[in-house]
Specification:
The structure holds two protein chains of two kinds. By secondary structure, chain A is mainly α. Among the domains of chain A are: 64 residues, no CATH class; 32 residues. Chain A is 53% helix and 0% strand. In chain A, helix 4 runs antiparallel to helix 5. Chain B folds into two domains: 156 residues, Nucleoside Triphosphate Pyrophosphohydrolase (Alpha-Beta Complex), CATH 3.90.79; 76 residues, no CATH class. Helices cover 38% and strands 20% of the residues of chain B. Chain B contains eight helices and nine strands. Classes of the chains: A mainly alpha, B alpha+beta. At the A-B interface, helix 4 and helix 5 of A face helix 1, helix 2, strand 6 and strand 7 of B.
Chain lengths: 190, 256
């Protein structure tokens, strides 16, 4: 680290000094080893220049025409077919009576409370389960340190653990699914 | 050191398995959940736009009114030709009939609430069930009180292996089951009555519980020579059947 630092500072010093001394460096413009440029008629050079420019412009135009299209976002894309008669699609405005509005608020509040209770029960359950397991392990440690060592080892056997369901309806016994293949209809964008 | 050696020798170590059948179908919504869902659906409908089907329904209604008007005035109905062939009402009736047929054919509504047979795995589909047994422990005439299946620990195996052996003793048949974790989830201390304690020279047994969840597809059968009686119980039934500290020590195994 020290070496690097000192090197950097010395370079800076040299650089400053060279500027102070009026030394300038620039890229070599010519040398004996470089190929001699042919002298061209300025008229022809101008024509060539214009041709080159036109060609580039044409290429740019082509590229802009066939440039990559942005992947559409289906969620915000307008459904043109439905948008055409959108004025027919509006529903009658519903004005809630005070009683109805109150009722809705009360339902929302009650639901909120029920979720809160549920969450507290879950939390309590988790704490209880952890406490029970800790207790069991502590007892096991006093009974047999060897068994304790075995018990606290990681069990990677059933990881990742995937749980399916429960579904809304029970599985159909002896269900014979119709023949067919899944066809992937996902659009791809290159 | 001496104390720990004493305690080590004066307790039997027992592993017990909480064999569970997870709920197969979701439990029905509670009243407040249902009311909240109804409200959300209502709000969503109010703030939405009409879809194509609803537009068609509206058009159908207009056409039907026109038809009635024409019929009333005794005019020709030819101007409505081809317009009222399939109304939405007809479509909806057909769809509903098909849905009813499906539900009936595949018994989709069946909840099996009436299933009283405790030995059936198809009872109480929306509840978590736990296997409770009356074990013989190798004696022909004996049947223990209702409890979770258990087995005594042998020298040289880990507790988890004991639990696996316990499952093997209790269950016969092709069972897809996995014990969860190497560590026991709970413990219950059982003190032997005095004569037994003196005879065995042990204070009692420390029962360590392991959770095991059975795959619903497995073919479950009990080992008749070890199990005198068994049942699949939900939390409330379990609490009735099993009492005291034993119940308390395993109540976290019910995840409800």
């Amino acid at each position: 680290m020290f070496h690097l630092k000192s090197l950097a500072s010395s370079i800076r010093v040299i650089g400053q000094r060279s500027l102070e001394n009026g030394f300038h460096t620039s890229a070599a413009c010519s040398s004996v080893f470089m190929k001699r440029q042919k002298k061209i008629d300025p008229e022809i050079a101008k024509v060539r220049e214009i041709r080159k420019r036109k060609k580039l412009e044409r290429e740019i135009r082509e590229m802009q025409k066939h440039s990559k299209k942005v992947k559409p976002v289906d969620e915000i894309a307008l459904d043109i077919k439905s948008a055409k008669n959108i004025h027919e699609r509006t529903r009658k405005q519903v004005t809630l009576t005070e009683q109805q509005a109150d009722e809705r608020t009360l339902i929302a509040k009650e639901y909120c409370r029920s979720r809160n209770t549920q969450m507290r029960h879950d939390d309590q359950w988790i704490r209880q389960a952890l406490y029970m397991q800790k207790k069991a392990l502590a007892e096991l440690k006093t009974l047999s340190p060897h068994l304790y060592e075995e018990a606290v080892k990681n069990d990677l056997g059933n990881l990742p653990h995937i749980i399916d369901g429960p579904a809304l309806t029970s599985p159909v016994k002896n269900y014979d699914p119709p023949d067919g293949d899944y066809v992937d209809t996902t659009r791809t964008w290159t | 050191m001496r104390v720990s050696m004493l305690t080590r020798t004066s307790w039997d170590i027992v592993a017990s398995v909480v064999l569970q059948r997870a709920p197969i179908i979701a439990s029905p919504m509670s009243p407040i959940e249902r009311r909240y869902q109804d409200m959300l659906l209502k709000v969503e409908k109010e703030s939405s736009l009409l879809n194509d089907h609803e537009l068609k329904s509206k058009k159908d209604q207009l056409l039907l009114a026109k038809k009635a008007e024409l019929e009333a005035s005794g005019k020709d109905l030819s101007e409505l030709e081809g317009e009222l062939e399939v109304t939405n009402l007809m479509k909806e009736q057909e769809w509903n009939a098909r849905a009813d047929r499906l539900v009936k054919n595949y018994k989709l509504n069946e909840r099996n609430d009436g299933e009283k047979d405790e030995k059936s795995l198809q009872r109480l589909l929306d509840r978590q069930l736990v296997l409770v047994v009356r074990q013989k422990f190798g004696q022909k005439q004996y049947a223990s009180p209702w409890k979770l299946p258990e087995i005594e620990h042998r020298q040289g195996e880990t507790l988890r292996q004991t639990a696996e052996r316990c499952l093997g003793e209790v269950v016969s048949g092709d069972l897809a089951v996995q014990i969860q974790g190497n560590a026991p989830v709970s413990i219950y201390t059982f003190r032997y009555p005095k004569p037994v304690a003196q005879k065995k020279n042990k204070n009692g047994a420390k029962i360590f519980f392991y959770n095991a969840v059975m795959s619903p597809k497995s073919d479950f059968q009990v080992n008749k020579s070890e199990i005198a009686d068994f049942g699949w119980l939900c939390a409330e039934e379990f609490n009735q059947r099993v009492t005291g500290d034993y119940r308390k020590s395993v109540h976290t195994c019910f995840l409800e």
